[in-house]
Specification:
2% strand; 320 residues; two-stranded antiparallel ribbon; globular; phenylacetyl-CoA 1,2-epoxidase activity; mainly alpha; binds benzoyl coenzyme A
């Protein structure tokens, strides 16, 4: 009689597969394949860096917001983004990577962050376009991530999505006010939307047939939908919102296709996208330089916090 010999690793893999199959969450205490851990670190750290770098284009307008109310809202939004970065760095730390390592990878230019944050923000309407389009795309991408198979990532996403919804509405409202203002204000809103529309579609990542990570990430239930599926969903959401704003969609080829029941879109400039990923966008160098400077300027805060923690722990030991 023959028996099937299984190694301890096979059993662990089988337990992991069963958890994924049953839509259960993988938690930091659970065994996981090394490739799953690495994929999560790649995506979560990139996501965290995006939140942190993403503070810069909007922070650029805090001192120039057109009213006290707008300034308070923008400050709250930018602070929210810092919070998102911190939840996500914490989620990545549960996978065994140190915060310092992730920071080093970012400031040395070895880590990715979303392509979208390498575009400039020359007018106030850019604050509206970022909130509406960039946070809008982020929500579309992140709502399914609330069901990501890795517990700490999915849970961080729930809170982040609630805050992103507020961000998206405040952006829409800025644009609505401008679109209903003077002809110059309406034109400023249209120009900003023209500049942010295509990069916001690129946020979802390359087309499915050029997305090397999607298939495995979907099999592991980290990603729930493909890049193109989410891009479709996003465009479908925008169409009635363009009408409500009274602004024109920059994609003149956009059509609903009755046969495929999909949006046929104009050509997305993927050469530009890959160029930005290589570091050649308008603001790549500036964003990294600014982050590096902020890190250096904050050295004394980190040193003071470490010294305070050292004294606290010495005091506790003395009492014990
Ligand atoms: N930008 O195989 P693929 C926010 C890379 S912040 C740069 O499809 P995957 C906000 C990709 O990493 C929220 N790189 O990859 C903050 C991969 O390269 P590597 C930002 C991109 O991972 C402040 C390669 O291209 N959201 O909302 O399966 C103010 C091939 O791609 C991009 C997130 O970070 C891109 N756009 O799917 C306002 C979402 N797209 O890593 C707002 C979390 C692709 O192999 N991330 N690449 O060297 C994800 O959902 C997924 O990682 C992606 C890509 C859909 C982005």
């Amino acid at each position: 009689m023959s028996t099937t010999v299984t190694s301890p690793d096979d059993e662990l893999q089988a337990d992991f597969d069963a958890l994924i199959e049953a839509e259960q969450r993988i938690e930091p205490r659970d065994w996981m394949p090394e490739a799953y851990r690495k994929t999560l670190i790649r995506q979560i750290s990139q996501h965290a860096h995006s939140e942190i770098i993403g503070m810069q284009p909007e922070a650029n307008w805090i001192t120039r917001a057109p009213s006290l109310k707008r300034k308070a809202i923008l400050m709250a939004k930018v602070q929210d983004e810092a919070g998102h970065g911190l939840y996500l760095y914490s989620a990545a730390q549960t996978l065994g990577i140190a915060r310092d390592t992730m920071t080093e990878q970012l400031i040395e230019g070895r880590a990715r962050y979303s392509s979208i944050f390498n575009y400039p923000t020359p007018t106030w309407a850019d604050m509206g376009a970022i909130g509406w389009l960039v946070d809008g795309a982020a929500i579309c991408n992140q709502v399914p991530l609330c069901r990501a198979s890795y517990g700490p990532y999915g849970r961080a996403m729930v809170r982040i999505c609630k805050e992103e919804s507020f961000h998206q509405r405040q952006g829409f409202e800025i644009l609505l006010e401008l679109a209903n203002g003077t002809p110059e204000q309406k034109q400023m809103a249209q120009d900003a939307v023209n500049r942010w529309y295509w990069p916001s579609l690129q946020m979802f990542g390359p087309p499915d047939d050029e997305s090397p990570n999607s298939a495995q990430s979907m099999a592991w239930k980290i990603k729930r939908f493909s890049n193109d599926e989410l891009r479709q969903r996003f465009v479908g959401m925008l169409v009635p919102q363009f009408e409500a704003l009274g602004l024109e969609c920059p994609d003149k080829d956009l059509r609903w296709n009755e046969e495929t029941e999909q949006w046929d879109m104009g050509e997305i400039d993927w050469d530009e996208f890959f160029d930005v990923l290589k570091g050649h966008g308008h603001c790549n160098a500036q964003r990294l330089q600014h982050r590096r400077q902020a890190h250096e300027d904050g050295a004394w805060v980190r040193e003071a916090a470490a010294e305070y923690a050292r004294k606290q722990s010495a005091q506790l030991k003395a009492v014990a």
